[in-house]
Amino acid sequence: MRWPRSLTLRLALAAGFWVAAGLGAAAWFVTDVALRQVEAAFDARLAGLLDAAAAAVAADADGRVVVARAPTGADFERPFSGAYWQVAGPGGAPATSRSLWDQTLPTLPTGATAEVLLRDIPGPRGEPVRLAERDVVLPGAPEPAHLAVALSRAATLEEIGRLRTMLTAVFALLGTGLVLGVVGTVIAGLAPLRRVRRALAEVRDGRRERLAIEAPAEIAPLVAEVDALIAANRTTVQRARAHVGNLAHALKTPIAVLRNALDATSPDVALARSEAAALDRLVHHHLARARTAALAGAAAGASVAPYAIAEEVAAALRRLFAGRGLAITVGGDRAARVRVDPQDLTEMLGNLMENACKMARSRVDVSVASAGGRVAIAIADDGPGLPEAERDAVLARGVRLDERMPGSGLGLGITTDLAALHGGGLEFGERPGGGLVAILRLPQVPGAEPV
Amino acid sequence: MRVLIVEDHAPLAAQLRDALAEAGFVTDLAADGEEALFLGETEPYDVVVLDLGLPRLDGLTVLKRWRSAGRAMPVLILTARDAWSEKVAGLNAGADDYLAKPFVMPELVARLQALVRRAHGLVSPEIALGRLVVDTAAQRVLLGGVPVRLTGLEYRLLAYLALHAGQVVSKTELTEHLYAQDFDRDSNTLEVMVGRLRRKLGDGLIETLRGQGYRLATA
């Protein structure tokens, strides 16, 4: 069975199920107890009448059973009233109450039972009656006499029916009340959520700045988080707007110059070319900024093994530098993972390893090592290296490792930005035997050390 | 050298076609992925310039299908997407080089020529065969240190033979690599051209193997 989508309906269904089960059991129990009481009272009355009948009979001098004083009561006198008695002695027809008229009760033969025996049987008119019978030994009589008393159950059955109807009605009413109570509670309990939803819709429509709702303790944190999200969103939009403004200004000016240079009667090709180059630089710069800025919110959460990424980049670089016969190796800790977006790590390693390939004479070696909660990825080449004094300058954006080498020069800048964004850093060292080592340090994902 | 240019932006495709034709390439154009896939699978190209963002079938898929079909021609990816993850994906899908837009034409030409050389196991742009030197970068031919004046088609014929020096090159192969796909191919033109080359370079350099093709002596 699939649960309905409505929370109220779910809770009402669950509550309804338990209320029905609980009240059903209680109703059965209560009805059972009440019916037993009614039946027991009826049987007690029947036993009393049987005792009265026993007291009414006696044995005469010949030992025959006679009814000395007939049991009294109008009901025994009125024919087919529903109250009957019958006494059967040894020999002869049994004596009966007037109410039995010409009928007799279907009693057991004398001697069948000395104890009181109770049975439900059809009465003289077919009505349900309860029969109590027993044998009595009368003083002076040679054989026991058989006594029987019967009472109509019609009134009792009617009473039981009334009791059942009443109890069912009471319990049904109680159950309905309980379920309605639960539904009401749920609806009332969810009211703050509906208020939040309405307020959120208003925020979306621009009719409200933020939620700022007085909410119960369970929902207050949600309201606060949503408000924080709205605020962060707004800041991002404002920043984006400012950035777009700057970008438009930065790009449109060179485009205007470019157009004018081309529209002139004698187009200024040199100017157009230098403006196009300026545009290229600007686009590069702003795209790189946009890329790192876009990641600022999404930096957390991802984790990746630098070894695997380095291998992928190495495979790509082997194709790219296929003509140079470079040996590109990856080694070290295969299992270590860093908390960095895979695309960002590819970007960092791509830039660093490509630089290494450009500088290298014959080989580039990448090694991954983890220590002290950080993973260090060392990229070593056997190229000319870099004097210590120049290393800081190179790390700054826009400075190329070597002006003679092709490349935009932004690669290292992006790499340092990304490393910082992910809580890491980049530094340069000297390779033993000559060459440069770039070491990228990034925060390790805990619990991922090799076993 | 025959190059397939796969680029859906018509003005850039035209610029590429003109620049590569000027650099001595025979050019075919494909403006969408499906056309590129078909041409690359059926025509023998010496090198391919492949844009990644293509209509109908993206460039990376085209490249992967070529490679799985056993097409091994060098491919240079030309794209505006210059993130390293894209570069790695392109190169590991079988590309041989990657150039990000915007680019300058001379760099593209130089890289394509380097790819063609690399495919033939050559490192230097100059192919030296005894007294004959074919400079594929400058599209120049020197015979004993003296420049030889050749037409564009003559140069392309000689350069192709030089890249396959010592090997027999059939007329069909030559036609396929020297003319664009829609060119009316006539083998007589080829014979006339070889004759003219022989006159300019002297007998003995280009050998005719009857029924098989031509061969340029290695020394």
TrEMBL record, chain A:
<dbReference type="InterPro" id="IPR005467">
    <property type="entry name" value="His_kinase_dom"/>
</dbReference>
<dbReference type="InterPro" id="IPR050428">
    <property type="entry name" value="TCS_sensor_his_kinase"/>
</dbReference>
<keyword id="KW-0472">Membrane</keyword>
<dbReference type="Pfam" id="PF02518">
    <property type="entry name" value="HATPase_c"/>
</dbReference>
<keyword id="KW-0902">Two-component regulatory system</keyword>
<protein>
    <recommendedName>
        <fullName>histidine kinase</fullName>
        <ecNumber>2.7.13.3</ecNumber>
    </recommendedName>
</protein>
<keyword id="KW-1133">Transmembrane helix</keyword>
<feature type="transmembrane region" description="Helical">
    <location>
        <begin position="166"/>
        <end position="191"/>
    </location>
</feature>
<dbReference type="InterPro" id="IPR013727">
    <property type="entry name" value="2CSK_N"/>
</dbReference>
<keyword id="KW-0597">Phosphoprotein</keyword>
<feature type="domain" description="Histidine kinase">
    <location>
        <begin position="246"/>
        <end position="446"/>
    </location>
</feature>
<keyword id="KW-0812">Transmembrane</keyword>
<keyword id="KW-0418">Kinase</keyword>
<dbReference type="GO" id="GO:0016301">
    <property type="term" value="F:kinase activity"/>
</dbReference>
<feature type="domain" description="HAMP">
    <location>
        <begin position="187"/>
        <end position="238"/>
    </location>
</feature>
<dbReference type="InterPro" id="IPR003594">
    <property type="entry name" value="HATPase_dom"/>
</dbReference>
<dbReference type="Pfam" id="PF08521">
    <property type="entry name" value="2CSK_N"/>
</dbReference>
<dbReference type="InterPro" id="IPR003660">
    <property type="entry name" value="HAMP_dom"/>
</dbReference>
<dbReference type="InterPro" id="IPR036890">
    <property type="entry name" value="HATPase_C_sf"/>
</dbReference>
<keyword id="KW-0808">Transferase</keyword>
From TrEMBL, chain B:
<protein>
    <submittedName>
        <fullName>Response regulator transcription factor</fullName>
    </submittedName>
</protein>
<dbReference type="Pfam" id="PF00486">
    <property type="entry name" value="Trans_reg_C"/>
</dbReference>
<dbReference type="InterPro" id="IPR036388">
    <property type="entry name" value="WH-like_DNA-bd_sf"/>
</dbReference>
<dbReference type="InterPro" id="IPR011006">
    <property type="entry name" value="CheY-like_superfamily"/>
</dbReference>
<keyword id="KW-0597">Phosphoprotein</keyword>
<feature type="modified residue" description="4-aspartylphosphate">
    <location>
        <position position="51"/>
    </location>
</feature>
<feature type="DNA-binding region" description="OmpR/PhoB-type">
    <location>
        <begin position="124"/>
        <end position="218"/>
    </location>
</feature>
<dbReference type="InterPro" id="IPR039420">
    <property type="entry name" value="WalR-like"/>
</dbReference>
<dbReference type="InterPro" id="IPR001867">
    <property type="entry name" value="OmpR/PhoB-type_DNA-bd"/>
</dbReference>
<dbReference type="Pfam" id="PF00072">
    <property type="entry name" value="Response_reg"/>
</dbReference>
<feature type="domain" description="OmpR/PhoB-type">
    <location>
        <begin position="124"/>
        <end position="218"/>
    </location>
</feature>
<keyword id="KW-0238">DNA-binding</keyword>
<feature type="domain" description="Response regulatory">
    <location>
        <begin position="2"/>
        <end position="116"/>
    </location>
</feature>
<dbReference type="InterPro" id="IPR001789">
    <property type="entry name" value="Sig_transdc_resp-reg_receiver"/>
</dbReference>
